[in-house]
What we know:
The chain is an alpha+beta fold. It is built from twelve helices and five strands. It has a five-stranded antiparallel beta sheet. The longest helix has 16 residues. The N and C termini lie far apart (about 50 Å).
Amino acid sequence: MSDRNLQRASFLKSRRQRLTPEEVGLTRSPRRRVASLRREDVALLADVGVTWYTWLEQGRPIKIAAGTLGRVAAALRLDVSETEYLEKLVLTDHKDRPEWDAPVAKRVRLLVETYAAGYAFVMGPRWDILAWNEPFGKLFELCCRGIGAAASLESNGLWLMFMHPRARSLFPDWAANARRMVATFRVEYADYVGDAGFDDLIGTLGTSSTEFTSMWGDVDVLSPMRWNVREMRDPLSNETLAFETASFGIPDSPGQTLVFYIPSSR
């Protein structure tokens, strides 16, 4: 079974097992052996064959129409983020996915480096920080790296969150932010399942951080469109600062995201 189909199987099983018959309007039979939904329950709710759904959840290579997958998502009560994740695993053509370590265009780098109101950076598909302004660089000592240096784990956003000693003091609720970050990264990873660079990051973090391993094992997902940073502590004054996060895809650099943390008065 491919890595992508393994991800699909694990996700669908976890979502089915969190639901009870009562939650989806089914009557529980006295002879029922399990408290959660069965595969045949999902098949009934989604109006698909039991064998077909079983193969889907087992990660077998089968053909799936978008409409049919939509009915499965509805039957499992998937939210917007979970539906996006499932569609990425099943429907997206991953042959032309962007390179995760592509260089940042000079004009974009200049825009980031001259932003002075708050923090700014460019993030690649693997969440490598590819360009940054001076305030953001000082947060994680990225200024010590040469401008334009190749992507590495030491400048990866997920790695910094779990492995940089300063990260825990920057966020008022580090655990909640870290969990949301892992959930968002999982959706990004759906486009790159089996990619050596992504697997290196996940594997190295898995052997370096028990907290990451625990959070990664929860199979939580959060759409990148719903991820933002609202508060950070100033490392010098220890004052909690409020931000609005603005993220923009870079049209001529697929997979790269331009991020601004804009100071907020709230």
